Amino acid sequence: MVKHMTRNRRSFLKLAGAAIALSIAPLKLLAEFVRPEKALAATDLDGVFAQLGTPTDSDQIMLESPDIAENGAVVPVGVTSNIPGTSKIYVVIEKNPNPLAAAFAIPEGTEAFVQTRVKVAQTSPIYAVVEAGGKLYKTSRETKVTLGGCGG
Amino acid sequence: MAGQIRIRAKLEGDVAEVKALMRHPMETGQRKDSAGNKIPAHFITQVIAKMGDKVVLESQWGAAVSQNPFLSFRVKGAKAGDTITVEWLDNKGETDSGEAVVK
């Protein structure tokens, strides 16, 4: 009986150890791209740009976003950059509680293009911010929201 | 790598257009349930995509990406038969993945 319990305890410890290893390992999911923690936590546009840097306007960024979104919970956004050396693309929704929605690192060999769907809390300019050669560029378009994306 | 992410990778010339659909509630942490209690934040924070062993896209997300996230990107130098994998990690340490063969 005592032997049995010892074995159970061992196997439990082994299992627990494996569970801990599993829960730690995925935190290293990304190879190189460090999470822009402060920019993601910023609560206004100035706060985001204070962390990322201030972008200059560029007509070499194509931002596809709807003029009017009936459902702010699902707004399709596409960004294409024609700026050589584009290494990052940021999607920023000015009037959201945390404007920076998503950041993408584009390695060489991947086109400077991403498409996703985001929540837009209220009518707001959407910014596509691009990093290329260590400099930041932006373009923006306003999306009118009929039904907010963060309500409930 | 048998996950729930649905991926399609379509070859056009030597570019693979990848479309991935993930399953996730993407809770912002700002919503309340009918009893007025805050629903805890639960959202994907990181997504990585690879073609074979090569990283082709890395992303860091906030909670503003929509529920059941969609992600599309284009990888140059692809050929039919290449394998695309996508994997995510959320703020609770949960992960999911998926893979597709370029066609």
Automatic annotation (TrEMBL), chain B:
Residues 7-100 form the Sulphur oxidation protein SoxZ domain. It comes from the Bacteria. InterPro entries: Ig-like_fold, Ig_E-set, SoxZ, SoxZ_dom. Signal peptide: none annotated. This is Thiosulfate oxidation carrier complex protein SoxZ. The gene is soxZ.
